[in-house]
Amino acid sequence: MHIADGVLSTPVLVAGIAMTLAGTILGLKKLDDDKIPFAAVLSACFFVASLIHLPLGPSSVHLIFNGLIGLLLGWLAFPVMLVALILQAMFFGFGGIVVLGVNCLNIALPAVMVGALLRPMRHHIPAQLLGFLAGSGAVLLTGIMVSLSLYLSGEAFSKTANVVFWGNLPLSLLEGVISGFIIVLINQVKPEILKGVHSNV
Amino acid sequence: MIETLLAPKIISEKSIPIPPKLRVVLIVCLAMGTVLSTSWLTLWLFIALVVYLWWRSDLTVKQTIKRLLAMDCLILFTVALIPFSVPGEPLFSILSFTATKEGGLMALMILFKANIVMLTVMALCEGVDALTLGKALVELGVSRRFALLMQFTVRYIGLLYLEFHRLRQSMRVRGFKARNSMHTWRCYGYLFGMLLVRSFDRADRISQAMKCRGFRGHFLSHEHLPVTKREYAHFAAYLSLICLIFCTSLSSFNV
């Protein structure tokens, strides 16, 4: 899902940086000091999930968790994803530096959209369905956005954009299924998390 | 792999004498220069500069190649189809798809650019740990909350990873084997769910404990090292070098 530096065209890069900056500023405004530990847990979860590979068909994939993060955090998804992506770029060399804006936008905007759509419905639909819709919806949107950023960068990437979009579909299903089970468990063990993160104090 | 993130580090004596916050600025400038340039001459000059920076850092050849190759596999996937999508002089063909020279060169240039940026990050980040990076970002004017979020995240990554391995091990002891089945996915779902629930509880306990100790939203730090004139001079020199190299690319822009 990471796009490396040098691939995208300048207008796409600039648009990505501008929108990520706006989203992050908005997210940080909503991030009270009390919420920082919880946001950090989810950021770490996103990071750790990227290190864990699950079998899918003949290959293995890693989960993104952006649907889950959007469902639990809303706009906070932007700073949360940006932190994890900066750490990945700086210490593991995944992705790039200039392309950070686009990479963050591609993952965080679907999270925010899924969160905004599904949060009002969370008490009206079964937990498994909620998780599935959040997980698969967000990954599907991410796939579309990654393809779109490649497509907008020039004719040369149109084939790659196609491959990314279709290759992303099974991943989106898997993410949906697993997110469904995650939400089922959270709903049974600690349902207050779904009401929004806040301290017990 | 995760050790690269969590281990405390110090910048070695041999490395260029530039403090972390100015290193971050240099990384961003060098990355931007590389991404925006369109001429091969500029890229070769950038490679020379980055290899010099790499030589000054403490990285071993083995480490470097291992990390570069890991990323290159990912990039190869992105650029593999470009030679077949760009029209131009045909080079070779596989199954009626023709690769062109122009497309091949474009793919090669992307590969070069990505590797230059990666090597820059590796060379300049060597010796800078995640907590120092957080501090450097605050010094550069990034929001205090953002840096705090980063520092907390680094702490939790270690904890979550350990917790994950504990849970995973207990599954393995019970005979769990990952397959392509609903059972596997359900188990992984519950595993991640449990991880989240436990981490939320832990986050709550930590934030309460920190409040008890008088935490008011920022970490106290004793080391406040002002940037010396020598460091500024080095920084200015490298920055102008980057600008100069980038200028060699200007002629190739069609303005």
From TrEMBL, chain A:
This is Cobalt transporter CbiM. Its main location: membrane. The chain crosses the membrane at residues 7-26, 38-56, 68-91, 97-118, 130-152, 164-186. GO terms for cellular component: plasma membrane. Pfam families: CbiM. It comes from the Bacteria. The keyword Aminoacyl-tRNA synthetase does not apply. One of its GO terms (biological process) is transition metal ion transport. It is a multi-pass membrane protein. The keyword Ligase does not apply. The gene is cbiM. It is found in: Cell membrane. Keywords: Cell membrane, Membrane, Transmembrane, Transmembrane helix, Transport.
Automatic annotation (TrEMBL), chain B:
It is found in: Cell membrane. The chain crosses the membrane at residues 24-55, 67-86, 106-125, 146-162, 182-200, 235-253. InterPro entries: ABC/ECF_trnsptr_transmembrane (IPR003339), ECF_CbiQ (IPR012809), ECF_transporter_component (IPR051611). Keywords: Cell membrane, Membrane, Transmembrane, Transmembrane helix. One of its GO terms (biological process) is cobalt ion transport. It is a multi-pass membrane protein. Coiled coil: none annotated. GO terms for cellular component: ATP-binding cassette (ABC) transporter complex. Its main location: membrane. It comes from the Bacteria. NCBIfam families: ECF_T_CbiQ. Belongs to the CbiQ family. This is Cobalt ECF transporter T component CbiQ.
